[in-house]
Amino acid sequence: MKAYEFPANVTTEGKIELPNAILQQLANNQQVKVIILVHEPAEEEQQEEAAWQRLAAEQLLKGYSEDDAIYDMI
Questions:
Q1: Which residue intervals of the chain are DSSP H helices?
Q2: How far apart are CA 13 and CA 16, in angstroms?
């Protein structure tokens, strides 16, 4: 079994674009095995994202007062 490694993009239609150099090496009507590796954000990136979400929620709720509770009953 041969393996090719190359970067690829997923189109807006949900299709994977293969580079022409790879397509030329593949026979038509040939069955292939596909393995997809996707970059996952590092733990530090996930913690930073969570911190931004907490900050946004805190800032949103900072403007809320008890007088606004009347709108919760509507």
A1: 20-23, 43-62
A2: 9
Residue 9 has phi, psi (to 5 degrees) of -115, 150
28, β-bridge pairs: none
- Sign of the dihedral through C-alpha 37, 42, 45, 46: positive
17-41: per-residue pLDDT in tens? 999 999 999 999 999 999 998 887 7
HSE-CB of 18 using CA atoms within 13 angstroms: 12
Identify the three-state secondary structure at position 58: helix
Q: Which residues make Cβ contacts (< 8 Å) with residue 11, sequence separation at least 6?
A: 17
In angstroms, the CA 39 to CA 42 distance is 9
First to last CA, the chain: 65
